[in-house]
Specification:
Length: 202
């Protein structure tokens, strides 16, 4: 009987993996990659360090999985807007308006994880910063392709700077993310989105 009880006490702690991943994602989202330590993660996830390593690998592997979960659950709206709307203008307008909403949802960290999670990283975390930068640049390339298609179809003027316009929208979105983290509300960001749309060629 004693041996059996000891064996039961020695079993690894069970936990819901998806719930733990969600908590890790929110920690990275709120504090950034560099500032979030393993001890921070084990505390918010409610698991031990050995359990974290066994279930997710190291901190970088957990972060990559958290970013993927963020894309499925909360991010990805810019890419979807550009892909689903019939014109680049409508896709950009939808993306900006959705950014105003998504970046200010009550009960969630403010802004965008992909934009803010690696703002302050050491050289040791350069790969993390590069990975997130590539995700952001992918959105720029998708917008640029949509804008070029609109130019070819006559929806936008022939002299439209497709690359510059895509970068402009990306900069506005990044600014909206930071403003949300600084406390800007949805109404304020929607006004920013409206003003940004006026800069698009008619």
């Amino acid at each position: 009987m004693v041996a059996k009880e000891t064996k039961q006490r020695g079993r690894p702690r069970s936990f819901d993996r998806e719930t733990a991943l969600e908590k890790a994602m929110r920690s990275f989202w709120e504090c950034g990659y560099e500032a979030t330590s393993i001890s921070d993660l084990t505390r918010v996830m409610g698991i031990s360090a050995p359990s974290l390593y066994a279930a997710f690998g190291d901190k970088r592997a957990l972060f990559d999985e958290a970013v993927a979960a963020y894309g499925r659950l909360y991010g990805g709206f810019i890419s979807r807007a550009v892909a689903e709307e019939p014109t680049a203008r409508r896709g950009i307008e939808r993306a900006l308006r959705e950014a105003a909403v998504e970046y200010t949802v009550p009960g969630r960290p403010r802004g965008c994880l992909v934009i803010s999670a690696a703002l302050n990283t050491t050289p040791a975390s350069a790969e993390v910063a590069a990975s997130l930068r590539e995700m952001r640049q992918r959105n720029v390339r998708e917008m640029e392709r949509a804008i070029r298609a609109d130019v070819a179809a006559g929806e936008l003027p022939a002299g439209t700077d497709a690359r510059g316009l895509a970068e402009y929208v990306s900069v506005v979105v990044a600014g909206m993310s930071q403003s949300a983290r600084d406390g800007a509300d949805r109404t304020t960001l929607e006004a920013v989105a409206e003003l940004a749309m006026r800069a698009l060629p008619q």
